[in-house]
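Dear Dr. H.,

I hope your travels went smoothly. While you were away I took the liberty of generating a structure for the chain from your last submission, since the lab meeting agenda had it listed for discussion. I wanted you to have the full record in hand beforehand rather than looking at slides cold. The sequence, exactly as received, is reproduced here:
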Amino acid sequence: MSEPAGTRAQSSPIGVVLIIALVISGTALTVALGSEAFGSTQNQLSMERAEKSMTQLDSQAAMVALGNSRVQQVALATSAGDGYRVEETTGWMNVSYTNLTGGGSTTIMNESMGAIVYDNGDQEIAYQGGGVWRSAGGSSAVMVSPPEFHYREATLTLPLVTVAGEESIDGRAVISRNTSQAYFPNRSLDKNFTNPLERSAVEVTVQSDYYRAWGTFFEQRTTGNVTYDHSNDRVTVDLITPLQATDVNSAAASLAASGTFRVTGSAQSTCRADTYTDSYNSTGTSSGYCSQAPGNEGDVVYGNDIDISSGSGGDNFYGSLVSGGTVKVGNGGGKPDVGGDINYTTACQPSVADCQSRITAPSGTVNQVDGVPKRGALDYLVRRTVEEADDTNSNGATSAIAGDSLDYGAASPSDEVTLGPGNYYLDRIDASGKEIYFDTTSGNITLSVHEYVHLADSDIEVLGDGVVFVYVEGSGPQTEDLYLDKDSEITNAGDDATQLRVFGQANFTGRIGSGGGGSDPAKYVGVIYAPPGNGGTGDVNLDFGEVYGGLVTGTTTVNKGSIHYDEALREKQTLTRGDDVVRVTYLHISANRVNVTDG
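The corresponding predicted structure, in token form, is as follows:
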């Protein structure tokens, strides 16, 4: 069959047209893709050049801000259609602290940081707060170079650099010094703005478009608690003051300027009638104090005065007296003797000669010293530990606790309760005619008490070889956070003071004994560790009671009692949680303002 006329003549032109169209389309696609890739490469190169320029600007701005130069100039890499701008009001930093004893927050510094910003599409490079930051749009941001925020060896140095100037910068930036403001230490701003900082939680908050990168920096450069407020583009790092060493090296100590020691009555010792302080050693033996020859390591070390002038003659101190203030021994006969040295900072009264006459140790001397070591209060740690235990604890794993109270009816006999290893929370311990056993045979016990520990004709005994840690917050209207009447005991086998450690805040109060006589004195075996820090009002009274171990408290008053120092405590750090506490003691905070203009 023959083809219709003209049909073959059309196929060749159509094929040519299709081929040309394909070539044109392919070329256009290649050009478009190549153009996009070229543009992406150009953008990336522009960002890299801007990043290098910002890093150089960071270095030069620091020289001006920190006083090493008055003016610096920096060439800024630019591309067609882009540039740098100064945003004077973007971002801010707030530094404040909260007093952990009295509460209330005090602002140290609240400054707008400003920024120098380069943007290219959805990417930004910014100089802010003395650091360089890069944002890729959305919520992502990374640090290019760190800000002026230095934390080392318990010291926070924060010379914040803030930026102001012309809105647009093209090609060259001129950086000039504006003003500086020292915020801390600075007594002219606030009489409390002095170093070292004690019993306070320091908080640094940054509001910034790059807050996530700031947060990462805080997480990497401090051991603080970092929290994010994403809805407001904020990040906060919480810092607290250090615990320092927590060993107990004396029978009684305050290790703070506010702590005093005074004797207002006679000694009370079960096995050695003439003893205010002495020592023994529970290491490697089950023999308690009464089975050992008493030692002469019953030192008394207080940051303020030591007054033994109202003590009884024949009742003596078998150890040294060390005071950050005045030692008062009284004159004439009928006063306590001292079987060690007498070291004073301010004075020894009535006179140095009177003090020397009270020393019975053959090599004992009277010496003037330059104060005593200081230790910070535990307020933050005690509060935090109790709060955490309130949220998460082992109460539900034992029948010995019902709700947040000891359950004496959980097992027979009904006046006893035994608590095994775990982390527990109690509202209080208020026992009358009860026996409480802390069984550490299988592990340690941590007990957080919201209010107080009160024992009336009751005993607590630690069983096993483990340790019981008791954190007493001291909330509520009670007079004493720890109270033992004259028929009560907290004890263990061998009088091992390392097995029980009670921690309290700067205003911790305790009473060992309830006065009078004719019955058994109160007995406490363990450590009470509640240093008053700078100005705490804590106190412990011995009133027909004995301590076997050691005290670190505020004021200690011996009306009728004795303290037998356990030398085994020298080998122990009383607190084992110190590593998770941020160590910031000294603050150096300032705002250093620079102007950036187009050169």
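Two observations you may find useful: The longest strand covers residues 539-552. The chain has four helices and 44 strands.

With kind regards,
E. W.
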